[in-house]
Amino acid sequence: MLKIIYNQFLTVKISDILKYADAKIVSGNHDHDKSFEKAFSSDLMSDVLTLDEENILLITGLANLQLVRTAEMADIHAVLLARGKQATQEMVELARENGLILMETPYSIYKASGILYSNGLKEVY
Amino acid sequence: MAVEMFFHIDGGDFANAGKASSQIKKVLKQLNVNAKSIKRVVVAVYEAEVNVAAHAYQGTVTAIIGENDIRIIVADKGPGIEDIEKAMQPGFSTASKEVREMGFGAGMGLANIEKNTDELHIESKVGESTTLTFRCFYT
Questions:
Q1: Residue B103, min C-alpha distance to chain A (Å)
Q2: The domain spanning residue B32 has which CATH number?
Q3: Which of A72, A119, B51, B118 has the most crowded CB, counting CB atoms within 10 A?
Q4: Residue A84 is part of which domain span?
Q5: Chain A, nearest residue to B15 by Cα
């Protein structure tokens, strides 16, 4: 019972993401206490744009300007770039302008998603 | 009182696709439109911008921002849409490999525009142009 109640309010902070996924922040404010309940993993921005949820973590292997734009339009405030993909200078600049937190992890999408899921970051669907 | 905004998009210019939706988002925020309504509008405009960059030679976005609603006109010069009904079907796509590698071109854009708008009208002349007109009421 206690566990169920606990799980309902479980969120994952930026600092947890950095720790669990061995990630680093490449752009964004350094509010490591900002927290998320849910995440979505996709390389297809068209799918990200169909989500009705906001304030989720996006895990993706797509490192381009369209990713940053998509996050802006979809009200996504944090993105974890997987598979060792690196944000370009243009991406970092636009992310800064929009207040988007961009992180990089050497892990695959599968591994990063699996670790974060098992630490309480829930699915959008 | 309505605020009118106008933008130009070049075909193939993906770096700038999103500028119109970004500016429109800023204005709607300043007007204190609620976040859910803003998201619907800017997702629809962004999808339309990506469509112009992906398919057309050039295009324009006109936004007429009112107190209770926003009207958007996205007009392009380009190949046009042969079968609009088919183009509306999720999964139908004529996008190039390059567009798909950019995270788009899955054939979901028009369907997503329809989902996020209250009125949508598409007019197209094959080999000439496509014009999307849509309207969103703030909730």
A1: 4
A2: 3.30.565.10
A3: B51
A4: 2-123
A5: A65
